[in-house]
Known about the structure:
Layout: H1 6-12, H2 21-27, H3 32-35, H4 47-50, H5 52-64, E1 69-71, H6 79-82, H7 91-109, E2 117-119, E3 129-132, E4 135-138
Parallel strand pairs: 1-2
Antiparallel strand pairs: 3-4
Helix pairs in contact: 5-7
Amino acid sequence: MNKKAIQDQLNSKILLLDGAMGTMLQAENLTAGDFGGEQFEGCNEYLSLTQPEIIQSIHEKYLAAGADIIETNTFGATSIVLEEYQISTIAYKLNKISAELAVKACEKYSNDEWPRYVAGSMGPTTKTLSVTGERLLIY
Length: 139
């Protein structure tokens, strides 16, 4: 399938974006084991590795509900946030896998008449940044 450029699609209709990944994950009532152990509990981005079928299912629920665009499971997948779980070194891997899961879901639901798109999700870090003089401080 040759997917229509998103700009062309925007010119023809209002595109709907999916909802909150975190809220959907909370509804799954996941345990520490689902996250890969207590040390990763709460790291929703890590679920792209430990529970890819759940992430895929959430993407597909939004697409089935009519979303045109789904966001990757990468809201907190920066090395700064992931360092809290001592997994900052796999930030690239988590982002890549999360994007691949979203693309796979879109491919399943897209067709020539109704293409679906993936948007990368990037939230704030969990640190406060402060610039003082020539130094950048991370709290």
